[in-house]
Design a protein that fits this description.
The protein is flat. It is of the alpha+beta class. The protein has one domain. It is 27% helix and 23% strand. The chain starts with a strand and ends with a helix. The longest helix has 15 residues. The chain contains 2 helices and 3 strands, in the order E-H-E-E-H.
Length: 77
């Protein structure tokens, strides 16, 4: 499956507070200080907090459908 995602993050981003009043439905939420399991052999904590939203899961419809969905997402938000 291929997907187009929107990621928002920041060093001082209160992701939980933001998402409580946000229109976004986060697929993934990450927080400063957490130690991500993937691709992290040194077990370094995250320097930032943020979230991931799936903009388009246009699986089988190709890049053009994902670009269209991404543009519509950006116009709306």
């Amino acid at each position: 499956m291929s997907a187009c995602v929107f990621v928002a993050s920041g060093l001082n981003f209160d992701v939980d507070r933001y998402l409580r009043s946000s229109p976004f439905k986060a697929k993934t939420v990450f927080r400063k200080g957490e130690i991500p399991a993937k691709d992290n052999p040194d077990r370094q904590p995250r320097p930032d907090s943020g979230f991931v939203v799936i903009v388009s899961a246009a699986d089988g419809h190709g890049l053009s459908a994902q670009v269209k969905a991404a543009v519509q997402f950006l116009i709306k938000h």
